[in-house]
Amino acid sequence: MTATASPPAATGLDPQRIERLRDSAYRIRRHALDMGEVQGQGYIGQALGVADVLAVLFGDVLNLRPTDPEWPERDRFLLSIGHYAIAAYAAFAEAGILPVEELETYGSDESRLPMSAMASYTPGMEISGGSLGHGLGIATGMALGLRHQGRPARVVNLLSDGELNEGATWEAAMSCAHHGLSNVLAVVDVNALQADGPTAGVLRVDHLTDKWTAFGWNARRVDGNDVAALLTALDELRDAPDRPSVLLCDTRPGHGVPMLETREKAHFLRVEAHEWQIARDQLTEGHQR
Amino acid sequence: MTTATPRTKLTTSAMIASFADPGQRTAPAPFGHALAALAEERPEIVGLSADLAKYTDMHVFRDAHPDRFFQMGMAEQVMLGAAAGMAEVGLVPFASTYSVFATRRAYDFLCLDIAEPGLNVNVVGGLPGLTTGYGPSHQATEDLAILRGCPGLTIVDPCDSVDIAAAVPALAEHDGPTYLRLLRGSVPTVLDEYDYRFELGKAAELRTGRDVLLISSGLMTMRALQAAARLEADHVDVAVLHVPTIKPLDREAIVRAARPDRLVLTCENHTVIGGLGEAVGSTLALAGLSTRFGQVGLPDEFLAAGALPTLHDRYGLSTDALVARIRAGLDGHTPWAAEPEPASA
């Protein structure tokens, strides 16, 4: 692995901006734990791991109108990884796209918040996930279309490192570069974990920065649980006017809740009924420190 | 492979072959011209191809509207995903490749990115059924079987250049996903001789007849009309019901036409599994119609490479073979036999 060391927090970033986004990430994690408790299960490890990335995207990157999710000039946020729906709903609630009270319907019959993300169910959900390797291709077409129409909106696709197993992702990676789609930002949650175990043992996707760079992308790799590092990298990525950008985010599943972070890594984390409150307490304690 | 003596004219298993009869009236690249003309009126029309623009007649559109053509490379999955993305932002894409690649290779993308959200994306598949002698890699003998199960997908199997010219604007107008079985190159012009107008979702009786009803789609409608004309000389009266829209199927027209006093044969350029024949068969059964019914179509096997006329004879799609099947059916031979007739001499 060629993980780039995170830049130190002292990068001239506004401390209040960082604090605001850390608070946001905390609330996203809280929402995710609440939703996980309703169902007694869920992709809670991924949600906790990717919360900082989502806080930065929804709090600092995406140009959206929360009360008008269909606003034609909005930036598009494409969740390729449908099983991360729990994290996306938490971020939508934090962004004001969904009412916080609705989160408790997660995964229930007739809910707008199914366990796997589906566009026709949920405001703000642009595409249906579930089958991996689709998001970046759709992003390619959206970005080509928006550019063709002379509209400045960007397309942000959240992928996972496991999703890089899918050949279709690389078809799309080539296509974005070939067409010079500078209005595409791919964000990869590199949590080194997939359904059958660690990514390193399932299908290695190492040398990620080199791979994406070789595919013609402007690439940065950062600690995805470091808000300052994410902001710095995103600012740097804005300097590529002629090519797509990818932010590779190394994240730790369960981040923010030591009990879950240290648990044996699993794609689908089991959490006992009595543990949810412990998890919330640990999260709050860690955030206040 | 055939073994031929050096003096015998060799047949060809070329990728691109015409199924037009010698001397038949044809129109060049009707799909490309229809799309280019439509795009003059509708600025939201865009075209995509996966390194096969030239072979799917998309090059006509590309040359007429270069700023609205997107070359997606030999990458069918991203082409269909990207077409979905374009439709999401308000464009009306036509995406072309060979049928085998659109269906076998990229079906998950057609199904989930395009059909599930109900987007107005029009997938255009070249070389449907047995329209190339190149072998199973390019012969989309089961594209209808794959796609008929896809909810909300409109499927059109045009007969000729007249059908294609009318289908293109209809598909663009239809607010949902579609699949067009493309006939490309020099495409026969047949249906202008009949009192007929293509209408999406509608079957049309092109000729009436007392003894036999042929229910056909695609290029087999042309063969059905030829077979009917030939049998007319022998005082066999053959009706032809053309079904250019495979899905949604015009069940009413089929039930109305399939009177029990006639032999009913479906004719399709597709395997007898899961295509027009089985769709019509289930329609008749569900309507409680008991009629002599049989299927003309490709056998349930991977087909040979070779010259198209040879293959159409061998697998029962040629006019000669169709006439033989009709006669056999009238003589009381098992009309439902799915096995191919031996090639006629």
From TrEMBL, chain A:
<dbReference type="InterPro" id="IPR029061">
    <property type="entry name" value="THDP-binding"/>
</dbReference>
<comment type="similarity">
    <text>Belongs to the transketolase family.</text>
</comment>
<dbReference type="Pfam" id="PF00456">
    <property type="entry name" value="Transketolase_N"/>
</dbReference>
<dbReference type="InterPro" id="IPR005474">
    <property type="entry name" value="Transketolase_N"/>
</dbReference>
<protein>
    <submittedName>
        <fullName>Transketolase</fullName>
    </submittedName>
</protein>
<feature type="domain" description="Transketolase N-terminal">
    <location>
        <begin position="25"/>
        <end position="283"/>
    </location>
</feature>
<keyword id="KW-0786">Thiamine pyrophosphate</keyword>
TrEMBL record, chain B:
<dbReference type="InterPro" id="IPR009014">
    <property type="entry name" value="Transketo_C/PFOR_II"/>
</dbReference>
<dbReference type="InterPro" id="IPR029061">
    <property type="entry name" value="THDP-binding"/>
</dbReference>
<protein>
    <submittedName>
        <fullName>Transketolase family protein</fullName>
    </submittedName>
</protein>
<dbReference type="InterPro" id="IPR051157">
    <property type="entry name" value="PDH/Transketolase"/>
</dbReference>
<dbReference type="InterPro" id="IPR005475">
    <property type="entry name" value="Transketolase-like_Pyr-bd"/>
</dbReference>
<dbReference type="Pfam" id="PF02779">
    <property type="entry name" value="Transket_pyr"/>
</dbReference>
<feature type="domain" description="Transketolase-like pyrimidine-binding">
    <location>
        <begin position="25"/>
        <end position="189"/>
    </location>
</feature>
<dbReference type="Pfam" id="PF02780">
    <property type="entry name" value="Transketolase_C"/>
</dbReference>
<dbReference type="InterPro" id="IPR033248">
    <property type="entry name" value="Transketolase_C"/>
</dbReference>
